[in-house]
Amino acid sequence: MTKHKITIMTISSVFAVWLLLTWTLIPETILPSPQSVLDAAMRRPGSLLGNAGITLLRVLLGWGFGVYAGMKVGLRMTRSSTFCAVMHPLLEIVRPIPPIALTPFFILWFGLGIFGQVLLIALGCFMVLAIHTYIAVENVPPIYVRAAATLGANRDQVYSTVIVPAITPALLSGLRVAAGLAFALAIAAELLGAQRGIGFMMMVARRTLNTDVILLGIVVIGAESYLFDTILRYSFARLGKWTESPRSVVSLVHTK
Amino acid sequence: MSITIVLDHVTHVFRNSEASITALSDVCFTVAPGTRLSIVGPSGCGKSTLIALIAGLITPTQGEVRVNGSLPAPGVCAVGFQSDSVFPWLTVRDNISYGLRLRGELSPQDEQQVSEWLEATELAAFANYWPRELSGGMRKRVELARALVSRPAAIGLDEPFVSVDALTRQDLQVFLLRLLAATPMTTVLVTHDVEEAILLGTHVAVMSKRPGTIRTIIPVTLDHNRPPETRFCPEFLAIRAMVEQTLRE
Q: What does the pLDDT look like over B203-222, one tens digit per residue?
């Protein structure tokens, strides 16, 4: 059976179990049925789209600024030992703190507007990319740098023609990890305090125990996150073409 | 346009926090324009350090290295490395043109050069392949073409064929000899393979154990045409015996 077929079967089985459970055992308020989730979506489609849009906007802005700054800082750390000495302890101290824990402060400082939420998402993505980039550069085999130097590359050229291409696959995985985190942070931030967005929609629904709307929120976020990841994978596929496809390595250790 | 490589009382010490290791001690030699010096010696005697010094990747602790009368700078002396240094993110063609592209857009002459090297290395059919799709021997040829395409005046080879099988190795040796016959180039070849040293060199320098010094330099009195069978001729065997005896002393 092809991988594609298995995927479709898995998703339809989960769906079938959901349908079956809600028909027979579980009351609507504990686990809403697919039908009522669909109804919830159709009740006010405009507001749903608006909320989905604003969450996506926060994610894109936060992710964009965060990963850009993270890559810049990560690369800069490998170029200047002073900068690295300053940044390394800061990153190591902030790293274990989940950005969500900072939400109360962000609300206190920046209010409930989009700025604080975008900043929070950006901070999370920044941490991921700064560390990913720094470690990726550390792992570039020195032989490539030496080879480039003997072929006449100066320091800047070593960065642009060796370091950057060599770390591209690691950066791509960093970008994807950060994208997942960005959605999680957006929802968390909206749950704790926002006036729009999918997380806000879910929080309001929780107060009135509208479990169908909560489940709808989960489905929408799942779909958005999956779509974004797919777009990332396809748009950057060309850049990672030179590496062995990771799937081919996995296939060596796979059992049928 | 070959050049002279001079090592003048070169000593090199590697230091880390715990210890300092003297890799080379008072090494002196001159490689005349267009000649090829093979250096053999026990492992860990500082052979690779010699190549790094000549290529300008490191500077000696004491003494002086002169390439064409001036301090070695990266980009002057091409290098063939022991391990695989072909850039995996560039196709064969882009690997070969790498050094030329560092200087700006490729001119039509540059393009011509690259195509000629693709032909010379028998890689024309693989110009758009990724390095991971090539065999070890092919990657070695890409590496040599990449080093030689910008017509360097000198080349340092650090155990260049150690990672390929014995037969491929012989092919590569023949290939390299042919290249060097076509464009004579001052060459320093570091190897632990005595046969390779004699086959490829015009002189063989024998080094001592660490700290490495040059024990003696033996001229290779063979003619320029050296097919693989050369290694069975009496003259070759005599030189080989001499080198091996010096190594054992």
A: 999 988 878 888 889 888 88
Q: Does B96 touch chain A (CB under 8 A)?
A: no
Say if the Cβ atoms of A143 and B88 lie within 8 Å.
no
Residue range B5-76+154-248 forms a domain whose CATH class is alpha beta
B225-228: list long-range contacts, CB under 8 Å, 24+ apart.
B226/B177, B226/B199, B227/B174, B228/B170, B228/B173, B228/B174, B228/B199
pTM, two decimals, is 0.83
pLDDT band at A28 (very low <50, low <70, confident <90, very high): confident
Residues whose CB is less than 8 angstroms from the CB of residue A73 and which lie 6 or more positions away in sequence, other chains included: A87, A126, A130, A133
Tell me the C-alpha distance between A129 and A175, whole Å: 7
Output DSSP code: residue A193. S
The SS3 call for residue B39 is: strand
Is there a contact between A193 and A107 (Cβ–Cβ < 8 Å)?
Answer: yes
The CATH architecture that domain A45-253 belongs to is: Orthogonal Bundle (1.10)
Closest among B25, B5, B13, B160 to B72, alpha carbons compared: B5
pLDDT digits (tens, 9 = 90+) for B145-196: 998 888 888 899 988 888 888 888 888 888 888 888 888 889 999 998 899 9
Beta carbons of B41 and B192 less than 8 angstroms apart:
yes
Q: What does the domain layout of chain A look like in residue ranges?
A: 45-253
Return the ∠ at Cα B242 (arms to B240 and B248), rounded to 5°: 100
Min Cα distance B152 → chain A (Å) is 10
Q: Rounded to a whole number, what is the distance in Å from the CA of A242 to chain B's nearest CA?
A: 5
Q: What ipTM does the predicted assembly reach? A: 0.86
Using the Cα atoms of residue A35, residue A36, residue A38 and residue A44 in order, give the sign of their dihedral: positive
